[in-house]
Design goal:
Elements: H1 3-18, E1 31-36, E2 39-45, H2 54-62, E3 70-73, H3 87-93, E4 98-101, H4 113-120, E5 124-127, H5 131-137, H6 139-147, E6 151-158, E7 163-165, H7 177-188, E8 192-196, H8 197-203, E9 219-223, H9 234-237, E10 244-248, H10 254-263, E11 266-269, E12 272-273, E13 276-277, H11 279-288, E14 293-296, H12 300-308, E15 314-320, E16 329-330, E17 346-354, E18 357-364
Parallel strand pairs: 3-4, 4-5, 6-14, 6-15, 8-9, 8-14, 9-10, 10-11
Antiparallel strand pairs: 1-2, 1-3, 7-16, 12-13, 15-18, 17-18
Helix pairs in contact: 3-4
């Protein structure tokens, strides 16, 4: 098989893996394509909840045609026994002759051992192709393995002058329907949607994916030091239907803790720093609970704390062509900067119109 064919089939495996983003945590979302004599005989991607894995699904579809075939996998096949047998064993047993994967798994239970076992079994292993693309797809899984925290995408929808509401709190709707639909698609590709207590109180959000055919909703997270949240809110009323996780401080009222737990919420005690919940402690707790990708939608204080702590990996702006003025509510809380050189900076990755608005995507700066 030539280099062009390898790239084409591995690109398909990566695309299949992206189908599961937001629905496979704590496992990575992997895609697999089985090819024999230039023809696809099997394909699969990680199922919701993380099992079954991509490889056994693709092998089951291929059947006997897998013998002597090439498996294109978007991440190193697992080599450890968990709730299911290792994917390396399945590939070996099926008679796969060659495996093409972009990069190694950073999970210490795998970390190159999958490739090594395949080679021991006489299977040719090719790595490195489309490595950067795969690293982006698996960034949340890798961050949790290496730093103990999930990837954070911060989305800010604002007016042209960076306001999220008028002085009276009127904010619906600054951006249009197309931008809002795009946000729902982004929510669906993340494990969880997170907001601060002020946003939860002011907007009474549901934080669900709507009108997208979603079969699995993201976890809904509120960061609230004192748990002083409305007990008749949409989140409270639906906590037993769609997961609600609350990150709080050690000084939260025990009675409110019990009430929210009875409503169905899961609660995480986090450290306090500077009078506010420490964002590192919050993300550490979420990572320990299994999350790999978190989509933060504000408000301003939470967004500022994440930026100040250098915990934002992707910054997405939805900017409308409307001006609100200095009396409006800013998209970001105070950052306490004395010099421009201290400001968080990101590299522009994408900019495009969405209806009457502009979406701009910025990635963590490499400089």
């Amino acid at each position: 098989m030539g280099a062009a064919a390898d790239r084409r089939f591995l690109s398909l495996a990566l695309a299949l893996g992206r189908r599961g983003l937001g629905r496979t945590w704590p496992n990575p979302s992997v895609g697999c394509v089985i090819v024999r004599d230039g023809r696809i005989v099997g394909r699969g991607w990680t199922a919701p909840g993380g099992r079954p894995h991509a490889e056994p699904q693709a092998l089951a579809q291929a059947g006997e045609a897998a013998r002597g075939a090439t498996a294109y996998v978007s991440l190193e096949p697992c080599a450890h026994h968990g709730k299911t047998p290792p994917c390396t064993e399945a590939l070996i047993a099926a008679g796969i002759a060659r495996v093409v994967a972009p990069l190694a798994d950073t999970d210490p239970r795998v970390a190159g051992q999958g490739f090594e076992r395949l080679r021991w079994a006489g299977i040719e292993v090719s790595t490195g192709l489309l490595g950067e693309e795969a690293a982006r797809d698996h960034a949340g899984f890798f961050l949790r393995n290496e730093l103990g925290r999930p990837l954070v995408t911060l989305k800010l929808a604002s007016s042209f002058d960076g306001r999220i509401a008028t002085a009276t709190g009127d904010s619906r709707w600054i951006t249009g329907a197309e931008a809002r639909r795009a946000v729902h698609a982004m929510r669906m590709r993340h494990d969880a949607v997170m907001v601060g207590a002020g946003t939860a109180r002011a907007d009474d959000p549901s934080l669900t994916v709507r009108d997208m055919g979603a079969t699995r909703q993201p976890v809904r997270i509120v960061v609230s030091r004192r748990l002083d949240l409305p007990l008749m809110s949409r989140l409270a009323r639906t906590a037993k239907e769609v997961p609600v996780w609350l990150c709080h401080g050690p000084d939260a009222d025990p009675a409110l803790h019990r009430t929210w737990a009875d409503l169905g919420a899961r609660l995480f005690a986090c450290d306090v720093a500077g009078g506010h919940l420490d964002p590192r402690s919050v993300l550490g707790a979420l990572g320990e609970a299994g999350l790999t990708r978190v989509f933060c939608e504000g408000g301003g204080a939470l967004a500022a704390s994440l930026l100040n702590a250098d915990l934002v990996d992707t910054l997405i702006g939805m900017t409308a062509g409307v001006a609100i003025g200095a009396e409006g509510q800013p998209a970001l809380g105070a950052l306490g900067l004395a010099r421009l050189a201290e400001a968080p900076r990101f590299d522009l990755a994408e900019a495009r119109p969405l209806g009457g608005d502009v979406m701009h995507v910025w990635e963590r700066s490499r400089t």
